[in-house]
């Protein structure tokens, strides 16, 4: 039951009062105040005396007013009872609270779709304490999001207004994993128009859709079937290595993580050799690789490797250690 039904009921009763007042003024030839008084005592059925002698037309009119008013008051009381008994008031309050929380989000990530893939994305964001908001309109998925007490918008992610309500213009990234590739393409296209700097990762069910998603504006595309196939092969060929990688990503089992940290121009790391930064001594992190702006990867970099602005260091360590390096690198999120 929605509050809209209560508002409609109140509006109908208001219309009834206005119509009945005008009716009494015409039928009984009385003033506005007297007619309003007659309407109120008739609608409320309090039983006070009439202000004038009732003629036959007035009595018949009053009968219809009483029947209609009792029906409408009964409907309104029924809806009010449902509103309070079904917890709708709490739900409305929770939605308003959630709407305010979403409006305050900035530099966050929008997740479109909370199906199986979307739920895995959400769990990873929760593990990494990342601010995000979910857009979903499937009732079963919404129930799960409600139980997890997450910020979500119950609507269609392909609508411009919904993306704007999710703060797409203030967001740093968007993940779209809807059931249909066509919907994902539409979301990517719309989101890119609304925020040119947004980092967009999109799910593609078919190989041919990946190219369309890139053209629409996605930075990266992911095929769950392809990734699943590679992982199954890896688990068969090198099970111990796959176990190690899985547990780096899943911090529930091992207290280490693998992330990239970007070097800002104003950072003390800019222009220094890796040995001079003493990253391992200062933070305890392991630098696995460096990614240059031209997409060049340097794996297991030498101590003499010079760090530059916008270089991305792929490091392994705890969340606290990685955050410490972010501060040193003066990283500005994408």
Compact summary:
Helix content is 54%, strand content 13%.
Question: Would you mind describing this structure in some detail?
Answer:
This protein is of the alpha/beta class and 334 residues long. Helices cover 54% and strands 13% of the residues. The chain has three domains: 3-85, Helix Hairpins; 90-222, NAD(P)-binding Rossmann-like Domain (Rossmann fold, 3-Layer(aba) Sandwich), CATH 3.40.50.720; 255-329, Regulator of K+ conductance, C-terminal domain (Alpha-Beta Plaits). Strand 8 and strand 9 (297-299) form a beta hairpin. The chain has helices spanning 3-28, 32-44, 56-85, 88-104, 116-127, 139-147, 160-165, 181-194, 207-216, 224-237, 239-249, 274-277, 279-283, 319-329; strands at residues 109-112, 132-136, 152-154, 173-176, 199-203, 220-222, 257-262, 286-291, 297-299, 312-317. The protein is elongated and about 105 Å long.
């Amino acid at each position: 039951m929605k509050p809209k039904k209560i508002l409609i009921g109140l509006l109908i009763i208001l219309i009834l009062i206005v119509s009945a007042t005008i009716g009494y003024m015409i039928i009984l030839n009385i003033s506005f105040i007297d007619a309003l008084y007659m309407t109120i005592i008739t609608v409320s059925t309090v039983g006070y005396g009439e202000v004038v002698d009732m003629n036959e037309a007035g009595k018949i009119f009053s009968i219809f007013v009483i029947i209609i008013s009792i029906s409408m008051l009964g409907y309104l009381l029924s809806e009010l009872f449902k509103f309070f008994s079904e917890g709708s008031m709490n739900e409305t309050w929770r939605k308003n609270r959630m709407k305010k929380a979403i409006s305050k989000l900035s530099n966050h990530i929008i997740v479109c779709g909370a199906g199986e893939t979307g739920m895995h994305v959400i769990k990873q964001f929760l593990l990494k304490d990342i601010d995000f908001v979910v857009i979903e309109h499937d009732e079963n998925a919404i129930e799960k999001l409600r139980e997890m007490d997450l910020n979500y918008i119950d609507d269609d992610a392909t609508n411009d207004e919904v993306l704007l309500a999710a703060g797409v213009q203030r967001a740093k990234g968007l993940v779209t994993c809807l059931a249909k590739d066509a919907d994902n393409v539409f979301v990517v296209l719309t989101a890119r128009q609304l925020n040119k700097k947004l980092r967009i990762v999109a799910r593609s069910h078919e190989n041919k859709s990946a190219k369309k998603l890139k053209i629409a504006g996605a930075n990266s595309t992911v095929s769950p079937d392809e990734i699943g196939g590679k992982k199954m092969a890896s688990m068969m060929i090198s099970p111990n290595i796959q176990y190690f990688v899985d547990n780096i990503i899943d911090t529930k089992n091992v207290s280490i993580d693998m992330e990239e940290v970007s070097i800002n121009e104003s950072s003390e790391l800019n222009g220094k050799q890796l040995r001079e930064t003493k990253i391992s001594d200062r933070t305890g992190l392991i630098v696995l690789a460096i990614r240059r702006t031209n997409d060049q990867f340097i794996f297991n970099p030498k101590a003499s490797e010079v760090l530059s602005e916008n270089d991305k260091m792929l490091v392994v360590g705890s969340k606290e250690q990685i955050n410490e390096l972010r501060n040193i690198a003066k990283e500005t999120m994408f």
